[in-house]
Amino acid sequence: MTNTPAPISRMADPGAFVPELNDVSAALFRATGNRSVPRTTVSLVHLRAGQIVHNTYLTVLNTSFLRKAGESEERITAVSSWQDAPYFTPAERAALALVEATLQPAPRGQERVTDELYAEVAAHYDEKALATLTIAIGQINFFIALAVIGKPQPVASLADQQWD
Q1: Which of 2, 18, 31, 43 has its C-alpha lying 20 to 30 A from 87's C-alpha?
Q2: DSSP state of 57
Q3: DSSP letter string, 78-142
Q4: Which pLDDT belongs to residue 100?
Q5: Torsion of Cα atoms, 92 then 147 then 141 then 108, to 10°
Q6: Distance, CA of 79 to CA of 108 (rounded, Å)
Q7: Residue 5 gets which letter from DSSP?
């Protein structure tokens, strides 16, 4: 038996092969960090996305972001059952409903994001914030592909090593 350490991901660091990835990632973080949507809301949305796709890396990372931001354990834990949890504002609920509608299949013949859902989200976010929230959902979708294909080890900080 050898003492070779287990790889921390099943895919080599994609940034080593496609260095433009760092530019794309930084641009997405700048775009979602424009303060039109609270960073906490973005992290709640990203956590819910990680839960929906059953990805431990994204779930652990975004849980850590929320803890570092001072969010309560009740709010963090209740993200998976936000619909009946008393811990979320109407704006956060709209954002969570939007990410769920975007990531989950719609019933046959129906839209994922209905006009009613769009109107609900738009009632809580101005045009810049709605665009930012949409980009935040696109951002997590971008990282979902890397996370579910590359399967990096769960980390609590982006500063932690996550790729071989």
Answers
A1: 31
A2: H
A3: HGGGGGG-TT--HHHHHHHHHHHHHHSPPPTTS-SS-HHHHHHHHHHS-HHHHHHHHHHHHHHHH
A4: 97
A5: -90
A6: 26
A7: P
Predicted TM-score (pTM) of the model is 0.89
User: Where is pLDDT greater, at 45 or 108?
Assistant: 45
Residue 134's Cβ-count burial label (10 Å; 0-12, 13-18, 19+) is: middle
Positive or negative, the Cα torsion across 128, 64, 140, 97? negative
CA 35 – CA 6 distance, rounded (Å)? 40
What is the Cα–Cα distance from 87 to 109, expressed in whole angstroms? 33
Is a pLDDT exceeding 80 seen at residue 55? yes
Tokens matching residue 62: 């975004």
d(C-alpha 63, C-alpha 57), whole Å? 10
Three-class secondary structure of residue 70 per DSSP: coil
Q: Which residues of 143-160 are buried (b: 16+ CB within 10 A; e: fewer)?
A: bbebbeebebbbeeeeee
CA distance 29 to 6: 30
Q: Closest Cα partner for 102 from 136, 68, 62? A: 136
